[in-house]
């Protein structure tokens, strides 16, 4: 399993895992903002970006691939930051191979199952007739029939790549669709499973991904954690309020 990545800065390593349908490039501005103090590595998780694909997608598999990446690149003891799907991947790694990391930052996700509409997004992307696409505008026009949110379409279109005279998706739509129940869930762990390292949960104040009734499970699995709300931010909190996001990360890492 080969994972693509980008590295900027120097100092203590901070490894960032993106969310579903994303890639490391979505975090370029955050990485640049932190690169004055930290060595920031943004990773393309399996089935996303320029990384290898797998037949199925589970958090156990994503965590294992991340653990291998940390070991291969001598990043043991790094801080691991994950958003959404990357957050669940990070939590799974922390609960199974916590010795590989020194601290954990989880961005707007909790260790619980969710009922999302990601299957509709996958089906909308799969419905695009790539053979007829001559430009990104062509693809967006087809997507608009299924996805009304222009900003979401723009985000998803970052996964469209020119391939010779045509275009292709650089995310594994078939594998993600087959694994959607696993991606919406969260793995069961042994009753005694805990990650006791310092942990920060960053929640978008305008998001409903981390609710008050999630705090009990957060406290149980991550007893050395705290939850911080970021104002003026939804689920994509690092894009909605990047200044507050970077400040919260710095304060946690400097504590």
Explained architecture:
The relative contact order is 0.16. Strand 6 and strand 7 form a beta hairpin. The protein is an alpha/beta fold. The chain contains eleven helices and nine strands. The mean pLDDT is 96.
How are the SSEs placed, and which strands pair?
Blueprint: E1 5-8, E2 12-17, H1 28-34, E3 38-43, H2 59-72, E4 78-83, H3 85-97, E5 101-107, H4 118-126, H5 136-143, H6 150-157, E6 160-163, E7 166-169, H7 173-178, H8 180-184, E8 199-204, H9 215-221, E9 225-230, H10 237-240, H11 242-254
Parallel strand pairs: 2-3, 2-4, 4-5, 5-8, 8-9
Antiparallel strand pairs: 1-3, 6-7
Helix pairs in contact: 2-3
Summarize the structure.
With 255 residues, this protein is an alpha/beta fold.
Core attributes:
255 residues; alpha/beta; Rossmann fold; 2 domains; 7-stranded mixed β-sheet; two-stranded antiparallel ribbon; 9 strands; 37% helix; globular
How far do the termini sit from each other?
35 Å
CATH architecture of the largest domain: 3-Layer(aba) Sandwich
Structural class: alpha/beta
**CATH class of the largest domain, anyone?**
Alpha Beta
- Report the uncertain regions: none
Rg over C-alpha atoms, rounded to the nearest angstrom? 18 Å
Shape: globular
Q: How many separate helices?
A: 11
Domain module tally: 2
Strand order of the largest sheet: 1-3-2-4-5-8-9
Largest sheet: 7 strands, mixed
* Overall pLDDT: 96
């Amino acid at each position: 399993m080969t994972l693509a990545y980008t590295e900027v800065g120097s100092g203590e390593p901070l490894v960032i895992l993106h969310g579903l349908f994303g890639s490391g490039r979505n975090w370029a501005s955050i990485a640049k903002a932190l690169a004055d103090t930290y060595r920031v590595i943004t990773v393309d998780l399996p089935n996303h970006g320029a990384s290898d694909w797998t037949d199925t997608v589970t958090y156990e598999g994503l965590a294992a691939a991340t653990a291998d990446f940390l070991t291969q690149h001598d990043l043991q003891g790094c801080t691991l930051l994950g958003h959404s799907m990357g957050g669940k991947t990070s939590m799974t790694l922390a609960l199974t191979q916590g010795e590989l990391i020194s601290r954990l930052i989880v961005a707007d996700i909790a260790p619980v199952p969710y009922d999302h509409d990601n299957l509709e997004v996958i089906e909308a992307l799969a419905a695009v007739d790539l053979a007829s696409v001559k430009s990104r505008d062509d693809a967006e026009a087809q997507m608009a029939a299924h996805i009304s949110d222009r900003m979401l379409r723009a985000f998803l279109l970052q996964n469209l790549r020119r391939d010779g005279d045509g275009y292709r998706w650089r995310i594994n739509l078939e594998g993600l669709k087959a694994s959607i129940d696993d991606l919406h869930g969260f793995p069961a762990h042994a009753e005694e499973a805990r990650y006791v390292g310092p942990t920060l949960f960053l929640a978008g104040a305008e998001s409903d991904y981390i609710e008050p009734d999630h705090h009990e499970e957060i406290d149980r699995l991550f007893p050395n954690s705290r939850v911080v709300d970021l104002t003026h931010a939804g689920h994509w909190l690092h894009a909605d309020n990047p200044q507050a996001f970077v400040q919260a990360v710095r304060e946690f890492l400097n504590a």
